[in-house]
Amino acid sequence: MSGFVEKPEPVQVPGLVHLHTGKVRDLYRNEAGDLVMVASDRMSAYDWVLPSEIPDKGRVLTQLSLWWFDQLADLVPNHVLSTELPAGAPEDWAGRTLICRSLRMSPVECVARGYLTGSGLAEYRETRTVCGLALPEGLEDGSELPSPIFTPATKAAVGEHDENVSYEEVAREVGAETAAQLRQATLAVYARARDVARERGIILADTKFEFGHDGEELVIADEVLTPDSSRFWPADTWQPGRAQPSFDKQYVRDWLTSPESGWDRASEQPPPALPDAVVARTRSKYVEAYERLTGLAWA
After folding, report:
1. Core-most of 19, 184, 276, 285, by most CB within 10 Å?
2. Which tens digit of pLDDT belongs to each residue from 212-255?
3. Which pTM value belongs to this model?
4. Rounded to whole angstroms, how far apart are CA atoms 54 and 176?
5. Are 167 and 131 in contact (CB under 8 A)?
6. Residues 158 and 151 sit within 8 Å (Cβ to Cβ)
7. How many whole angstroms separate alpha carbon 268 and alpha carbon 253?
């Protein structure tokens, strides 16, 4: 059992219909039929939405996604129509709200990996493969792969765990042509982002994207290349064979599984609130990722 420790009540705004409350985002539809996506400060880990929020997190995710959409515009179109705040929306939606195209979303989490860690490492240790792709012997936690790989996963509901699947399963699910489109776009976007991040002293270990179609056009959606959807490591301390320092929510995961938290991940009990120091440190990591990647000071 997992999910929300306490599911929040959606904010009601005149002219907007609430559609869905996700782990981090709340989704509405406006009178024009466009989607209104609001990034909260909620934090999720191990399929739980935690009782503690991270101040500014939703704004960081939104502003960093917008910056990346600009960097990627020549590779793939995105779903953003406007960043204007809807009439009647609360003031704290400012900077965390996007008006977006309504797309026919792919049921696949499109994951690109350039380095071996996380669920990919766990699978590799058992089978020397990731999502059915054979990898060389001798790789360790944090090893760079010979070339980036497309390792898709099924999308899970809140409280459920995404499951890695093979490319063949994706082709059966969405058709061979769409599967090829998703793989090509995922690896192209990863390669561009990896190079941009590397110039700024950051390793993009892996990341996940969501795509949809507007008619026949493939469009990248949701968030992109944020600390929620990606593993960012400082390049100057990278050392295979151990867990890497990171600019993402790995810090929260590590605290939750430490003796200090007192939480048993295998139990059905919800995780505890984060200490103030962990909240502050996590916020600083998200802000540092934004500043190092964009070169802009966080306001």
Report:
1. 285
2. 999 999 999 999 999 999 999 999 999 999 999 998 888 899 99
3. 0.93
4. 41
5. yes
6. no
7. 17
What is the SS3 assignment for the chain?
A: CCCECCCCCCCCCCCCEEEEECCCEEEEECCCCCEEEEECCEEEECCEEEEEECCCHHHHHHHHHHHHHHHHCCCCCECEEECCCCCCCCHHHCCCEEEECCCEECCEEEEEEEECCHHHHHHHHHHCEECCEECCCCCCCCCEEEEEEECCEECCCCCCCCEECCHHHHHHHHCHHHHHHHHHHHHHHHHHHHHHHHHCCEEEEEEEEEEEEECCEEEEECCCCCCCCEEEEEHHHCCCCCCCCCCCCHHHHHHHCCCCCCCCCCCCCCCCCCCHHHHHHHHHHHHHHHHHHHCCCCC
Beta strand pairing call for 144-150 and 80-82: unpaired
Tokens of 172: 């059966």
